[in-house]
């Protein structure tokens, strides 16, 4: 009798587990369908529908911890922002595309490091090409300069930006082999987006960010030896996004920073909660 009860209980547990697995599988498949549907809408330039389904799909696959399809979601978002930039002539959307491609590449690389990535090699190579092409498109959006002053709000060179400090809204010094933080940046009082990713910064001096009251986004990803942030970074009143992946900043410092900047989205290597 006891054996029968035990067997019945085991069957119920296994059945419940099987149902749970099937539900998770069904949810993941739903997320994948949403992503593909959103990408199809993107191809036909139906931006509202594309946004809706890409967001729904991304939220599902991310909750299910499906790394591959989370990477695909970021890749699709990259195509979305890139195409929106082309159609609507929006410089900032190119940067959003680059950030999305960058995130997808990072996840693809992590998957390859964890297990056989032979099925990812082709999309990863394609994605790197998309990243490079989008960066070139973004570069091409920058209008030339005249003797009377800057015509563009986006700068890719610190010397050129220093000539027109009041005109600098976006400063992109990513992948320029920086080893020290350019002190001139504190003079760009209208700066809203600062990209210093893919450099070799180790520290940022105090007193820089307290001068930059209009900053909305800072990208410090892949400054691998950066191990500390200045205290005044927490005083930026309108900071929306802070990217700190692949740095040496401790989790505790990031947690403390997130408490001081509750309205800021902080991208880090690990969850901060």
Features:
single chain, 273 residues, alpha/beta, Serine Threonine Protein Phosphatase 5, Tetratricopeptide repeat, Leucine-rich repeat, LRR (right-handed beta-alpha superhelix), 2 domains, 6-stranded parallel β-sheet, two-stranded antiparallel sheet, 7 helices, 8 strands, 52% helix, disordered N terminus
How does this model look, in words?
This protein has 273 residues and is α/β, with parallel strands linked by helices. It has two domains: 15-141, Serine Threonine Protein Phosphatase 5, Tetratricopeptide repeat (Alpha Horseshoe), CATH 1.25.40; 145-267, Leucine-rich repeat, LRR (right-handed beta-alpha superhelix) (Alpha-Beta Horseshoe). Helix content is 52%, strand content 8%. The protein contains seven helices and eight strands. Strands 3-4-5-6-7-8 form a six-stranded parallel sheet. The longest helix has 42 residues, at 2-43. The radius of gyration is 22 Å and the shape is globular. The chain starts with a helix and ends in a 6-residue tail after the last strand.
């Amino acid at each position: 009798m006891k054996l029968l009860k035990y067997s019945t209980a085991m069957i119920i547990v296994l059945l419940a587990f099987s149902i749970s697995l099937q539900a998770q599988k069904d949810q993941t498949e739903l997320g994948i369908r949403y992503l593909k549907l959103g990408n199809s809408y993107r191809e036909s330039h139906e931006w509202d529908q594309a946004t809706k389904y890409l967001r729904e799909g991304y939220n599902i696959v991310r909750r299910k911890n499906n790394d591959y399809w989370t990477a695909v979601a970021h890749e699709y978002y990259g195509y979305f922002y890139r195409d929106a930039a082309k159609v609507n002539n929006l410089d900032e959307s190119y940067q959003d595309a680059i950030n999305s491609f960058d995130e997808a590449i990072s996840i693809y690389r992590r998957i390859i490091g964890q297990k056989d990535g032979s099925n990812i090699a082709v999309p990863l190579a394609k994605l790197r090409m998309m990243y490079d092409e989008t960066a070139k498109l973004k570069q091409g959006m920058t209008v030339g300069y005249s003797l009377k002053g800057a015509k563009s709000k986006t700068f890719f060179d610190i010397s050129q930006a220093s000539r027109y400090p009041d005109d600098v809204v976006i400063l992109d010094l990513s992948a320029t082999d920086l080893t020290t933080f350019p002190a001139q940046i504190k003079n760009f009082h209208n700066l809203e987006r600062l990209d210093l990713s893919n450099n070799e910064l180790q520290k940022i001096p105090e007193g820089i960010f307290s001068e930059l009251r209009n900053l909305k986004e800072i990208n410090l990803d892949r400054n691998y030896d950066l191990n500390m942030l200045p205290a005044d970074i927490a005083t930026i009143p309108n900071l929306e996004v802070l990217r700190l992946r692949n740095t040496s900043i401790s989790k505790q410092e990031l947690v403390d920073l997130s408490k001081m900047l509750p309205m800021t989205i902080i991208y880090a290597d690990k969850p901060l909660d």
